[in-house]
Amino acid sequence: MRTGIYTFLGIVSIVIVVVLFMALSSVGGIETVSGNISSEEDLSKYFPLESFVWEYSDAKSFRKLMVTEQVYRSDKYTHLIVKGQEDDLSIKSYRDRYQFEYTYKIDEDKIIRVLDGNTLIDSYREVILLKKPLKEGTKWKDKWENTSGENFNISSQIKSIEEDGQCITIESKDDKGTFTIDRIIELGKGTVEVVVKESYDTVEFETGFQLFNFKEFEYKGFDNYMALLGNEKIGTLIDKIDEKKVPEQTSTLGDEQVPREEEERVLEDQDIDEETKAAITGSIQLFNEKWIDFINESDLSILETIVPEGSAERVIQAYMNKDMQQKFLAMDMQRVVVKGNVSNVYVYEEIERTMDGVTEVLIYNWIYEVDFIDGKWLVEGYIENKSF
Q1: Sequence-distant (≥ 6) Cβ neighbours of residue 231 within 8 angstroms
Q2: Does the pTM of the predicted model rise above 0.70?
Q3: Could you tell me the residue range of the domain that residue 68 belongs to?
């Protein structure tokens, strides 16, 4: 009889413990499943609501800088406004900086990013970045519009949650299958990595960037930060920021790895036979003819004129679906330098560009790198000739 009573009391105790455990779990007091976060998690914790600076890079030629402008609260949202600019040091119009402003609107259920201005990568006007419940597999639908006015139906989901919610990966796919974007959002920092995979016919591209520097800034405002740095190009001020450097962009010349800024000194004048010189300059001429076809008609035959996965390919990726028209007005190939299977060509160009209803003439002085691969000369990329 006494044994029966103890057994009964033991069963009652277990039931009470289970009920208490379930009750605590339902209010977020206990994390019950790996990959889930309490439903009471404050989404505003994922973005810093003080004055900060973000710097991103693809470790090659892309640079992105953002600075907190303003933080305020309305009846519905917490608003974080940041201002920034992007440079791609390899592309033909990097002097026309891509300037933008993001407004992050955070409520109890979701984080929305609104873009004003233009960006090179991930250039969509309004995006739901993150949505509750914060658990792997959470899905939502969205409609995105890019800066060229094209609309996309998007399916997003929380792909993974790591380190007790420290990092969340969100995957977003265009319903037509033309692109996928993976974003990693880190607690207290916001977006720390973006990877974009795009498909055009049978051609696939991958671009993206990672956060390499994140720090507090005493004075709010992008303009204040740029004034502090002397209004220099992003690409020239990287070394000045906390002595944290982006890996140097390099190009293989023979068996050497040489910084791009040093190419001009490495390749010295040599005697070049006319046939080789004509083949090299002809490859640049063909590349630029194809460039115009690509910009004006989205013709991807330009890929046949470049080194696969070289810096010129990143240029093409950056200009996918850009709403503009161009035509060449002048081109003067002033000097050809060859070392082994690599050539530098010094080129003066004038290009007429029409964008957003405005037509203007752009003038460039470039140093092209052209590589001899599988019996033909292909454009690897080009940099600004700083002697002009």
Answers
A1: none
A2: no
A3: 43-247
